[in-house]
Amino acid sequence: MKPLLTASGLHITFPARRGAPPARAVDGVDLDIGAGEIVALVGESGCGKTTLARSLLGLVRPTSGSVTFGGAPLSYRSGALKAYRRRVQLVLQDPSGSLNPRHTVYDAVAEGLRIHGSPGDERTAVASALARAGLRPPERFFLRYPHELSGGQRQRVVIAGALVLEPELIVADEPVASLDASVRGEILALLLRLRDELGLSALVVTHDLGLAWNIADRVAVMYLGRIVETGTVEEVLSAPRHPYTQALLSVLPESPVPPVVLAGEPPDPSRVPPGCRFHARCQVLASGEADRAGLASACRTRDLPVLDGRGRAAACHVHGTP
């Protein structure tokens, strides 16, 4: 089966101040998302995952590389982008910031229909989207304002605003990060139900590997502008190969191993280190394991290839598949 969305050789750089090298926010990424598939894009803040997601939405034009949707390259002409954004919708982290406090729920959900000039009965479409998002009976919410809703209800309104256009793919950026723990499970269950009932695909951007375990079919772990490990959720989270993935998993409450405390902060994306970009913080290198395997020099000096975005792979000289 051909993927629904494909990113190939994606690079995104931003100019730096005072003559510094440009920041390589996305530094070579291949990624596939299949029809009806949920992919979790995981990593620390600042690793480039939100910039990558915005590029897949057509909000940031890549410096090089391409995005393909439904077998056709993404065009950046205004008319083509408008049509594309009907098929690919964004769900943001903070529902309070996503909703205009002066608009009713009805107007918030109907906004996309009005922008795209959708035919058909608007009231029926809005009611159907709210019901699919779990707000029933939908008419009871039409005239409410965001401040009259709970956090979970506001996030459902945001999701309904995406669903009303009947997209094929949703990009959800930290969709439950601002919600109480009791509500997170409901929203994740909703996304899974939409996948099962509508065949909806989703890219879920998150720093939480526990969330990925509960919702994703596949996981892509990102560090300093590149995907460093990919695989099914069971493969990556049950037997992580990359030291960075191992460190992220070690701090989960249910982890069977002691927490791995990474030294320092992620490097500046305008000064990506040579060799493995994780080597300055790598516990495998620091422990002497890489040296015993005769690979310490390679870790520090030899770059790793871009992962192809599918199958099981890790960009690590010691434990991966270079």
From TrEMBL:
Residue ranges annotated for the ABC transporter domain, each copy included: 10-249
Record GO terms (molecular function): ATP binding; ATP hydrolysis activity
Annotated InterPro entries: AAA+_ATPase (IPR003593), ABC_transp_ATP-bind (IPR050319), ABC_transporter-like_ATP-bd (IPR003439), ABC_transporter-like_CS (IPR017871), Oligopep_ABC_C (IPR013563), P-loop_NTPase (IPR027417)
Biological process (GO), any one: transmembrane transport
Cross-referenced CDD domains: ABC_NikE_OppD_transporters
Membrane-spanning segments: none
PROSITE patterns according to UniProt: ABC_TRANSPORTER_1, ABC_TRANSPORTER_2
A Pfam family that the UniProt record links to this protein: oligo_HPY
Record keywords: ATP-binding, Nucleotide-binding, Transport
Family according to the record: Belongs to the ABC transporter superfamily.
Family annotation (PANTHER family): D,D-DIPEPTIDE TRANSPORT ATP-BINDING PROTEIN DDPF-RELATED (PTHR43776:SF7), TRANSPORT ATP-BINDING PROTEIN (PTHR43776)
Name this protein carries in UniProt: ABC transporter ATP-binding protein
